[in-house]
Amino acid sequence: MVGLVLGALLLLSAEVCSAEDMRFVDANDYTGYYVDAGSVNYESTAACNAVIAVIKADRNRMFRYTMHFDRGNATYQILSSEVLAYDTKTVLSKSGADGVLRPYAVSSPMRRIVDFIYDELPHGALPAPPPPPAPAPADDGGDSGEGDGN
To answer: Is 148 inside any structural domain?
Structure first.
């Protein structure tokens, strides 16, 4: 049964792929994971933005996210999201950025998506990630010499 639903999911995904450049990444039971290859914006070898879709065939839902991925820190952030009825592509709800950095595990679908973006999609030479910020100067606790002298 799962194979039949997965087959239907892949067949139905052809319609999504025609409107965007959605590329199949992975599936788990009734859930498929896709990346819009045309949306990927590489900031560096460690960070990028991309539109991804999570299709839940058994619920007739597509969750489309614009995400920021930080490969170096294994985190992602949702910049915007939409929930759609998969069969009609009717948008049921929309949300903006939530500001939350979420870690992803080595075995998670997000990790497979990030690996797919960097390892499978053509991107040419990428700039190195920016250096970490310089540490703040230590506060020695002494008097700065300012004030009214009292």
So the answer is: no
Name the token pair of 121.
Answer: 């999609």
Side-chain-side CA neighbours of 18 within 13 Å: the count stands at: 6
Predicted confidence pLDDT, tens digits, the chain (150 residues)? 444 334 444 444 444 444 589 999 999 999 999 999 999 999 988 899 999 999 999 999 999 999 999 999 999 999 999 999 999 999 999 999 888 999 999 999 999 999 999 999 887 777 777 777 778 777 666 555 555 555
Q: What is the DSSP string of 69-107?
A: EETTTTEEEEEEEEEEETTT--EEEEE------EE--TT
pTM: 0.71
CATH of the domain at 112: 2.40.128
Tracing tokens 């499978």 back to the chain, one arrives at 120
Residue 97 domain boundaries: 2-119
The residue with tokens 């500001």 is: 99
The structural domain count of the chain equals 1
